[in-house]
């Protein structure tokens, strides 16, 4: 019996999920006949819709509605929960580890393939800032978003109950590093949430909270244009948010954020959103990379100079053929990723059947960003919007982009309910240590000598 042609999709994010979804539709007959197999290797069994992470952190959307279960939507694909460690494309093999291989202790497994789709996404780009690894918090996953929400409310609880003014000030100081989408939207949504939450504390007022945005360049939100970026700064500063431009985080050791302008901020919260870099697995392949560590690709989304290898999204350097500027590449954002996945799937299917390939061409239409409830900025098709219209456009656009009707309906229902009822202000920090209560109950009783004297 002839082995099926195996399409290996590395990554279950935007590009990985959408590519596999379109492939299983286009190759329905081949999958049914057993002549083609689609294997998706991903660290998590779900795709995270990252533009909704700030709203999940603020409590506007339930965490489970920010993610899409891959096994449900990719029901004709084989899903492997694990990580690809290296790729030898010359031999058409990938070395990977799964949850089972870790439990078995037998090492990784080797998977052969005929077509390779590399879409591992990106990871946080950190710098060697002293103390960052010990005290920094990222904002790329739903776990980090919910953990940050719990952390912020927990700091307000600490400030409310302590008698130490220094501890109180540190607990109520929140430093965000990075003025891109992730940093600005996360800070704006959480500040909105914390300001609302403060009304339920008898001794914490909104003006007691100190929010600081640190950005190394001279502007924030460059994607929405200079004018809208300046408006965003005015909006944030109008809410007593301290925006520091052309400033870097030098250290955060001993829970003190030291900035390049000499400012020292005792704080228990440093959120790092200062950019991303390609996933490390790309460096463990024999495929061509550019100076930024991304895969060199053609406009057909094929990896340059090799056959049967494809890439898109954050991992790929795709030429922007709609731009008149030579050498310009498509920005690594969701707007391109979703559209690239469509062309990528069509080209993989065309390659299998010997049909001609299609070039990816999409002119960037603009960007929208939320600055908290009913506030936002947008620069779309040359038009500039701010305030409520931009915020509404932000929600409408991302509601249309989130996968599956199920998720769209649930998100819309939650937005409707949150408009009718009060915000949730509950912190479920114990979720991060679910066995702590049981371990305490199961611990042996203290010896007689350890009992406190009466």
Q: How much strand content do the residues show?
A: 15-25%
| CATH architectural type of the largest domain | 3-Layer(bba) Sandwich
Give the overall average pLDDT: 90
Morphology call:
globular
**Whole-Å distance between the termini?**
81 Å
Number of helices: 14
| Count of distinct structural domains | 2
Residue windows where pLDDT falls under 50 for at least 5 positions: none
- CATH topology of the largest domain, by name, is FAD/NAD(P)-binding domain
What's the Cα radius of gyration?
24 Å
Secondary-structure-based class equals alpha/beta
Strands of the biggest beta sheet: in what spatial order? 7-6-5-2-1-8-20
> How many DSSP-defined strands?
24
User: Can you identify the CATH superfamily of the largest domain?
Assistant: FAD/NAD(P)-binding domain
Helix content: 25-40%
| CATH class category label of the largest domain | Alpha Beta
Q: Main β-sheet: number of strands, strand sense, barrel status?
A: 7 strands, mixed
